[in-house]
Amino acid sequence: MVQKRRKEYIGDVVSNKAEKTVTVEVKSLYRHPVYGKVVKRRKKFMAHDEENKCHVGDKVMIIETRPLSKRKHWKVIEILESTQV
Q: For residue 69, how many C-alpha atoms fall within 13 Å in the half-sphere facing its CB?
């Protein structure tokens, strides 16, 4: 049996209002297949934050995991840059 590698993304925390949950916005660039223009794309992910350590503005790394709730399929594994002192 071949195991698939889990997806990892780096993004910014845009909301931490829910208990043990943060909303992470991941930004990416891609080249349009027909016109060749570089287009910005962003997507929001709900991620599990067990210790409620993340704050708005933090740069975090998230990893794909089993479904934890209806919209939460990601988990925060590391805080790369913190806005809190």
A: 11
Q: With H, G, I as helix, E, B as strand and everything else as coil, classify residue 16.
A: coil
Residue 72 token pair: 């939460």
Pairing of strands 38-48, 72-81: parallel
pLDDT band at 2 (very low <50, low <70, confident <90, very high): confident
In the DSSP assignment, the letter for residue 20 is: T
User: For the whole model, what pTM was predicted?
Assistant: 0.88
d(CA 14, CA 59): 10
The confidence score (pLDDT) of residue 45 equals 97
